[in-house]
Amino acid sequence: MIALNNYLERLAKKHNDSYIDLYSKVSTHNQLKSNFTVDGLHLKGQGYAIWRQEVQSYVNK
């Protein structure tokens, strides 16, 4: 996952696009933080709240 996110960040910079790093906000050691997921794959409310907060700053530009 880390390699994919690094690639996407470089690709966004190459095309002068925004890259929103959600991965580092909700993950650690290549896994979702336990307080943000119930099954290790899908976000729950707290995870979506962080997702919303991070994305919202780009939407309101």
Structural description of this entry:
The protein has a domain at 20-61. It is built from 3 helices and 2 strands; from the N terminus they run ααββα. It has helices at 2-14, 23-26, 45-59; strands at residues 27-28, 31-32. Strands 1-2 form a two-stranded antiparallel sheet. It is flat and about 35 Å long. The model has no long low-confidence stretch (mean pLDDT 91).
* Largest sheet features: 2 strands, antiparallel
> Unreliable stretches, pLDDT < 50, 5 or more residues?
none
Portion of residues in helices?
Answer: 40-55%
Number of strands: 2
Provide the gyration radius in Å: 13 Å
For the record, give the distance between the C-alpha atoms at the N and C termini, rounded to a whole number: 28 Å
What is the 3D shape?
A: flat
The fraction of residues assigned to DSSP E strands is: 5-15%
Strand order of the largest sheet: 1-2
Q: Counting H and I runs of at least 4 residues, what is the number of helices?
A: 3
- Element-level helix/strand string: HHEEH
How confident overall, as mean pLDDT? 91
Structural class: mainly alpha
What topology does this entry show?
Layout lengths: L1 H13 L8 H4 E2 L2 E2 L12 H15 L2
Antiparallel strand pairs: 1-2
Provide keyphrases for this structure.
about 60 residues; mainly alpha; two-stranded antiparallel ribbon; 3 helices; about 50% helix
